[in-house]
Structures
1.
Amino acid sequence: MQFTTATLLALLGAASAQKVHVVSVGSPNGTLAFSPDNVKADVGDMIQFQFRGGNHSVAQSNFDNPCTPIAQTTNMTGVFSGYQPVAASAAMGMIPTYTMMVAAKTPQWFYCSQAKHCQNGMVMVVNENTAANASRSLTAFKDLAKAATANIAPSTATSGSGNSTSGGSTGSTGGSTSGSGSSSGSGSGSADASQSSSTPGASSDVPTAGASVAGVSASMGLVGIVAALFML
Ligand SMILES: [Cu+2]
């Protein structure tokens, strides 16, 4: 799987000025944070979440409803890495990762759906834009999160367990670059499905919404392509 990851990154690197932004999720000593938690990224850049310790997730909300899957408040499916438990002793090359493509310059808000991690500040933003709206800062988002009455996990997406790069097999079945995004979200709704699968068929062409979902399936598609290359 490292091989796949390396190849994927090489492929992406070759595809122009795309950057990969690494975000650490948690740490071996139990930090409840994304680091960095405020990322500026261009459309087409990748964000690779590296799960460093504990049992965390990356889920997408909107600004106004932190700690709540974005699918519950909009018609977006949103991003969900599933839970990624990591032993504190895990070697660096063995940690799970989850990679998504940035599909918009507009602010995108994320949280960890584990326990009260979201309320405790385990949240982050991609492309904060306080110039457009000073009240929509990461600080303000953390304050809102602190007051959230519940921390809700999205229903498990197809990329749910394990490493999204090795999840390429899943991706290659669903993830075409046409970006319907339906590969995530409509998933199996396993044990922790505190969300009724209220994804109302989030069909593709929602402006920013569909866009970031499309980003995910596009990246999964790429992984699929990489996997396919290995089959040759
Ligand atoms: Cu967490």
2.
Amino acid sequence: MKCPFCNHIETKVIDSRDTNDNKTIRRRRECEKCQARFSTYEQIEVLNRVVIKRDESKEAYNREKLEKSIKLATNKRIKGSDLRQLMDEVEAEINCDGKAEIISKKIGNIVLNNLKKRDQVAYLRFASVFKSFGSGKRFVKELNKIEKTN
Ligand SMILES: [Zn+2]
């Protein structure tokens, strides 16, 4: 963890404790160079979540993989800090679900709902991949639906 004051790379943890909601850990750090003190907050990751795929096979949830597929499907319209923010919202919703297993379709729908609020074109691109619109007709129909709601 870099020191926010002098950018020195080595900082040591001098205290860590759970916050009130028990979902975040607060760490008090001290820079080894300038001795400045600062806090970091670590969120609990979406761990141990098993994703059930369309063919009913199972795999461990993987944030990077989901990020990559969103980036790819939206033709990089969603990337960088936008993508990170989107992923945080998506993961918060996955966590809300609270079950050990989640169906991949459900994750896809959560992504879709969040994209819809953010970027209509990205939404449509992701939808066309996720829902695998077989025909141009279906794509146009979805596009019309979006235009109507705007
Ligand atoms: Zn420092």
